[in-house]
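Quick start: what a row looks like.
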Amino acid sequence: MRAHEAGALHAEGGQHGPSWLIPPRDVNALVPALWARSVRRSPSGALTVAGRDVRDLASEFGTPAYVIDEDDFRFRGRQFKAAFAEVFADLCGGADVYYAGKAFLCTAVARWIHEDGLNLDVCSGGELAVAIRAGLPGSRIGVHGNNKSVAEIEAALAYGVARIVVDSFEEIERVAAAAKRLAVMAPVMVRVTVGVESHTHEYIATAHEDQKFGFSLAGGQAAEAVRRVLGHREHLTLLGLHSHIGSQIFDTSGFEVAARRVLGLHIQVAAEHQVVMAQLDLGGGFGIAYTTQHDPMSARDLATGMAQIVAHVCAAEGVAVPKISVEPGRAIAGTSTFTLYEVGTVKEVLLDGDASRTYVAVDGGMSDNIRPALYDADFSCTIASRLSQAPPTLARVVGKHCESGDILVKDEFLPSDVQAGDLLAVPVTGAYCRSLSSQYNHTPRPPVIAVGQGGARAIVRRETIEDLLALDLD
């Protein structure tokens, strides 16, 4: 069935859904691309992760809960590390992979990153503190952020981080002053805004000119930033340039344009200042599948495509390939995790004409996944606690918060007998869901449960009402 035919079928059948959402032949079937590798449906119909029944997880840890397949997360990180090391080996001795901690970070995850040999990109003093607590060496930490405080800069320099990505003229002076006070050399990269818009949502496209990140290449700010960094040679070491063109990118065409433009500045700096910068960071933003409409590239295909781009551009410009680094976050963390909820209410809502929509309300909501409200992001879901022989119905999964925009899954087919007490799982919630979570309506945030061969354990505990009240000063 073609996508547009499926959309017409929805309308004729009294249900309105997006054209790409095709009615399933089996409402119990899982789409493998949306789930961690160990997730299965058992003969009883319940989902299992690493062999653990989600009904047992719900009983032990409660709902809602983020459930992360530890082996899957670590496997994806190792895949990126191996692919970029091998594919770039002959070009620049292998590319470095910095896991973007903003996707999801806690002490356990930082330890996994450490143990598996990846680097870590942090963008706040809090994320740096997690990395330090986990024992990650400073030599494997990069620091981002468009408005780093003096305290954050000093903490990073005192810990000996590998690089600080400077983002404004004020920050260049701030880092240089901090390095002088601490009597250290600060390793810095200059973030360059290359004017490339990736194929992504407007709010997460970060390389066009009208946004808060980086120095404009076209406007000459990036070249001026390099000059100012080089003006502090006694306190700043210029490592290279940094470019990041957005998020949820499904091809490498944007990277080709970005690489060509940023390497143009690389060449300009060498000619103007007789300084050959050793590094170039091409950022992250690699897309993953949230629904059947997405078709992401593998880590190896990404590495191969980017290596071909870098090799071609450097050869055309007659320059040596600098040490390349990339920053996957979502592509490592996203699919490793699903969120487990319990259904509280089900209601049928009449729409125009004879159309209707089933609203399924769960015990979480926008406080644990703000992405649909913030980015208009699409998610999928499935009944996790049983099999159903009922025909599929187009449903909308909503939360418990006092907002009409409190929608977790805009459109998905669920069994028509979905009912209160069912467990419902929303896949691909490992990136940005816990990181962007809130206590809206004074709702304690869910725990993060890591499941692996050693069993299940909370790596971030559930917040309690006592946690919330402890912040109030009476």
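That is the whole record. The chain has two domains: 3-69+335-470, 95-328. Residues 3-69+335-470 form a domain with the Lyase, Ornithine Decarboxylase; Chain A, domain 1 fold (CATH 2.40.37.10).
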